[in-house]
Amino acid sequence: MNVPGEPDLLDALAHGGRARQLPGPLTKSTLALILAGGRGSRLEQLTDWRAKPSIPFGGKFRIIDFALSNCVNSGIRRVGICTQYKSQSLIRHVQRGWSFLDGRFDEFVELLPAQQRIEATWYQGTADAVYQNLDILRRHDPRYVLILAGDHVYKMDYGRMLDDHVDAKAQMTIACIDVPLDDARSLGVVAVDAERRIVRFQEKPAEPAPMPGRPDRALASMGIYVFDAAFLYEVLLRDADDPCSSHDFGKDVIPRLIAEGTRTHAHDFAASCVNTSDGVPYWRDVGTIDAYWEANVALTDVVPELNLYDQDWPIWTYQEQLPPAKFVFDDDGRRGTAIDSIVASGCIISGSTVRRSLLFSNVHVHDYCTIEDSVVMPNVDVGRGSVLKKTVVDKHCRLPQGFAAGVDPDADRRRFHVTARGVTLIVPEMLGQHVHHLR
């Protein structure tokens, strides 16, 4: 029941911001390319068998669903996905969940695996991944090309960025966000003039340059680029012919363009962000176990910074047909409950307690278990009397009766991966369970 005079929390979540857009002249003439071929090695064993963009997130989604949903919601209905590293999980997800666009209206999500189309090499870098699909780009004949990283979590109206690109008369536009100075070491750092023209770009600098007047913050690239298509083709051909280039946008292409005085513009993410919290745009690089755990567990907050309940800008995904979550037994010491938690379809919580945790689909928790501050991925079976605290449990793990993790850090380090912040990662192979049979 709502307190008189206070806003309805559920209504505020359901209608959180900007409404999704129908295709307009700019978005219709744009083709998006999502770069989804990276491993994400900082996620340790979580990416031993999958690419980072295909990692489950938020109880029912995959990380790549955010970039794909932003495209569809922005009115961009021509999308290519460049895949390379261990892409089977990603390919299967896209085939099952993203086949609803109508090719009769030139709408598609097209998978573009590395296949040595131009020369006998796999994708050598981000720029090379686009270059090796140049003939496909030319055949679709877009006026603008939107290049996206497939491994970040955020909600953004790309149409606003396209408007900004055209208004600035730029040849290339980079979406930028201000971040803490320490975080900028793993990103591209941008310096701009009074008109937001980019005057300097540093890729993953050891000592990032702070923003003027803000010594603790840096302006960082989000890995989102808009190019005039004809200009992009020229740039990629020139880069491909350069034997000294590593064929990467951040390391080679962008610094060269800025040095040559190309009209490169910095787009302020705040102008196109669809999800803010206390006025701060939401964007997460969940590229470490700690960051991944934190972003997922934060979704259990009463009012989470990332609003997944927003009907105006939904996150689309593959919907597996499963029964609702079930909670059984109501005896003292044996009560099936979940408090400040997210529990997905197909889960059964039998006489156990779940607190501030996120359980993906088909998780079965047997009697007398305690799960706290944990992220449990799909199809995990938690044995009777188990204890999980501050853990990330990968898909298909079978935790035996009496299992404990997150209780004794020294014991955990001997069996599992424990981060500097004390998050314990558990994957099937650590338990002697070989889900991926090679023999």
Share of helix among residues?
10-25%
State the low-pLDDT regions, or none. Answer: none
Assembly state? single chain
**Strand ordering within the main sheet:** 5-4-1-6-11-8-12
Strand content: 25-35%
Mass-distribution shape: globular
Mean of residue pLDDT? 93
Distance between the termini: 58 Å
Radius of gyration: 23 Å
Largest sheet: 7 strands, mixed
- The helix count comes to 11
Q: How many E strands?
A: 33
Structural class: alpha/beta
Describe this structure in words.
- This protein is α/β, with parallel strands linked by helices and about 450 residues long.
- It is about 20% helix and about 25% strand.
- It is globular, with a radius of gyration of 23 Å.
The gist of it:
By secondary structure, this protein is an alpha/beta fold. The protein has eleven helices and 33 strands. Strand 17 (330-331) and strand 18 form a beta hairpin.
Give the SSE layout.
Layout (H helix, E strand, L loop, with lengths): L8 H6 L10 H4 L1 E6 L20 E2 L3 E2 L1 H11 L3 E6 L4 H10 L10 E6 L12 H6 L2 H7 L3 E6 L3 E2 L3 H10 L4 E9 L7 E5 L5 E6 L13 E12 H12 L8 H11 L4 E5 L7 E2 L2 E2 L1 E2 L4 H9 L28 E3 L1 E2 L2 E2 L1 E3 L2 E2 L4 E3 L2 E3 L2 E2 L4 E2 L4 E3 L2 E2 L4 E2 L4 E3 L1 E3 L4 E2 L4 E2 L3 H7 L1 E2 L5 E3 L13
Parallel strand pairs: 1-4, 1-6, 4-5, 8-12, 16-21, 19-22, 20-23, 21-24, 22-25, 23-26, 24-27, 25-28, 26-29, 27-30, 28-31, 29-33
Antiparallel strand pairs: 2-3, 6-11, 7-15, 8-11, 9-10, 13-14, 17-18, 32-33
